[in-house]
Amino acid sequence: MNFPHDLLGEYRAQVVDATGRLWVTRGYDVFYSDDLGETFTFRTTIETRWLKKQSSKWDITTRLLRRGFLQLQPSEDGSLLGVVYGAVVRCEPGDDRFTQVFERPGRTMKLETLPGGEIFAGEYYFNRKRDEVLVFRSGDGGRTWSEVYRFKAGAIRHIHALVYDKRCDRLIVLTGDTDPESKVLFTTDGFKSVTVLSEGSQRSRAMTIQPTEGGYFLPTDTPFEQNYIQYLKFDGKLSIRCPIVGSCLGGSQVSGWSLFATATEPSLVNFNPSVILYGTADGIEWHVIHTWRVDRWSWPTTLQAAAFQFGRLIMASGDNRTGYLFGTPVAIRKTDGQLHRWKLNGVNGETHSSLLKPELHADKQIVR
User: Fold this and answer.
1) How far are the Cα atoms of 2, 169, 286, 290 from residue 351, in angstroms, in the given order?
2) Spatial separation of the C-alpha atoms in residues 356 and 365, rounded to whole Å
């Protein structure tokens, strides 16, 4: 199947909000588009030192120093909440500058906002010593924060993601990295209690999860075993839906499509130097939508990949009903840092029924 796409400039995809507005960033600057990425309007920025601001616009230094926005969440009142390395920042409605509201040096905070306005933030950091990992809550739009939950030392390494499931009204927590540390958890009462949905193996190790009919799509993120897109039922049972060529670090849902992208994390099982974007509209047929090759800075050694980041695709989050997927590849040849747009509704083209084996990555393939 043919998936036409366009390049829209040097922007990092962030989120498509409930109005269909696309939010993107360039370094520490925030822009939005109301015409599906044809034009962009500057919204706000983070005031910082000149050298830091400039280095956030250079590809290699951005990757090496983790510059720029890692996450952005717009609110209905016009305010913006953002994550940068070591801190959470907020921009009030009508303001043109962010201010820091929460600091956790050496950590990346994983944010999720619930329908009632509660915001939760979980810690993601290297945590070699397996120290405690904390979860924080804000009830005032991110202006103030308080600790709400604490994973005991040794329980997990870090929190991979917080994802709200509106169908079940639950907040899902993904953790890693060893078998005992890899868990899919959920809470329905703001972390007063936490329930285990899946744990105990690399098949429970994931960076993203997507609610679907009767359960969840759960793609694995492991350098130790073959990676798969899986189906996780509400009773905790896992089944394989699609083999993928590497660890999955991101996903998106667009107008009925579920989409996941692999990353180039070098290991004995992850030896394919390609980032591959997979998608399905029915949960049965899995299409390869796009393929990229990692650049020389991030391949083939784990040291290179750790320093200059894995090749991967950052996809816009949010309740995207526009029919278009927006994503920005990182550590990719030729189109690194370029905002891509794919049309997913009403596409036409030939379908192929052959099984896509893990080592294959040709376009127009379908996995059954």
Assistant:
1) 9, 37, 11, 15
2) 7
